[in-house]
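protien #1 (seq + structre)
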Amino acid sequence: MAEIKCPACWNDIPDDSETCPCCGFTLRSPQRTNIETHTSGQYNENTTNNLQTFSQKTVNPRDTVSEREKKNKKIIGIAIALIVIIICVGVANSNREKSKTAGYDYKGYSSDYYGRTSYPKTGNEGALYKAKSYLNTSAFSYTGLIEQLEYEGFSTSEATYGADNCGANWKDQALKKAKSYLDSSAFSESGLQEQLEYEGFTVDEASYGVKNCNADWKQQAAKKAASYLRSHSNWTRSELIEQLEYEGFSYDQAAYGASQNGL
């Protein structure tokens, strides 16, 4: 075995000595084994493997959120598609109903307002349908209905056909018209007779309406007097009575009307 000199005491000592056996001088630090390095490497390798294994077994939260968002987006997309389909179907049905209500078919017929039936728009049948429609909402004399149908564009012959075949009782129409007048204004007996004749009713028809409308002519005089006083508040009693007599009321009726209004 080779020897070396101790730097401290200069004695000969084996060259593999860590300390001098003579003076105890430390020649070199103890050699470290590779255990730590090996262990560290093994730890790092094992740790890496364990982490890889753990990452394979553990679900990434971000991956979970991403999958949930994808599912939600898919559900929302399906819901929107269903809503769009429902709206489109509703619009299509609405358009079909409108076409049924307003459109004309190949026979020249048109759906009525409710879309439940069809009716002719022109010719004799159209005039007849229109005549009945008018009589369902208002009262007309025979000549008045013909004039109205002509105003709607029907010819005189078509309008006459409609009036002749509508099944109206013209006396009943005169009575209905008389009541509608009394609902909106005040008339004397003679004044209402004249108004009905002006509407085209015959004398007999107008007389029937006046006699059967159950009007209280004194009360009609009072209503008429009140309407005059609303527009001419400075009228005297005699002036008001005179005006009511001019409207066709008798003196007694006119006097009653004036008294009921404080004159």
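ok now protien #2
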Amino acid sequence: MPRMESFVIPKEKRVWDKKLLILIILGLLIRLFYIATIPPSFIDATDPREYDSLAQSILNGEGLKNEDSFLGGVAYSYRPPLYPVFLAFIYFLFGHSYLAVRIIQVLLSACLIFLIFNLTKTIFGEKAAFWAGLGTTFCPEFIYYAGTLRPTLLHTFFLLLSFYLLYSSSSRRYIWAGFALGLATLTRAVSFYLVFFIPIFIGLVKGKNEMKKTFLFPLAFLLTISPWAIRNYRIQGEILFTSYESGYSLWLAHNPKTLKRERGEIFLPHCYFPEDKKYLKLSEKEKNKYFKKEAFKYIYHHPKEFFINFFTQLKYFYRPYPNPRYIKRKYVIISSIFTFPLFAFSFYGTIISRKQWKNLFLLYLVILYYTLVYSLFTVVIRYRVPIIPYFLVFAGKGLENFSLPLSRHSSSL
């Protein structure tokens, strides 16, 4: 019979578990208060309306299709499937309720506090975990996107879950991490190519023996996204693991009008269609190829403009506040107050932890990957949200180190 003492949780662990619970409860209250300020029937932009329409199409038995695609015709594979399925499931349970969606997303946002706290604890310890968890609790993006019908929060959750599992000690971590990355890709296709980079970097840093174990990671990933690929093959006549967003998104960022837009303007899709309108007669698959071809043609003939645009988008990607032209002033102020210190302490945490680079390479990888990929396209600030968790991890370390002299001073008084 085991001794009773073995079931007693150490006092220090209880304190930190209690702090995590307090952070989660506080995060829930803040997020619930925020969504209570949003009118129940309010839906804020074109993308949320499209996701809402796709969800209702699923519930009506018509599958994932959108007859109002701004590219003309019916779109079956323009958006990845998981977020419309997520919405459809909520509508099935609670009716066509935006409030129900927001409440579920509040719970999802609170899960980020748990994951970021524990990921930071695994890498840097409990004190850094508290600071990272505190930052997550008050993170404006995690609060705001709980209230809108966009896949941002769901994608951030599954991507973070994948990296959290990669850092776990579970013998099946590569299987579950691959599964989570597959779900992230079915939410936003941008994460697709991570499945190739992660095993390679693990092999380079941790050796061939560890790399051999990672074959389960891409296998689980492919099994997760294969139903979507098979479905697309039956409809489009080709295997498509992601979606047909990439062609038009690339054209949107690289076309004759890209550098002529007004200062501070992100994009106006209706202004950027090719004037010949040839794409209107093409199938969904052919449209994607057409826009990619036109974008690459423009890049090839205008390399200078390409690099100017790349660094312009890079600047937008790391702008500490949303575009003031489209967001209320108070949200610009709130975002700035949070983001400037986040970047500062994250940079500080990165510098002081540089000797742990082998243990941190996955965090470097995901930050670099999203930065480079999105800088090739037209950037809006929400595209940065999926990598905010990793900035928070480093910021937790930075704040821990910064607070040490303060705590020593207070204890000596």
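The two ends are 48 Å apart (CA to CA).
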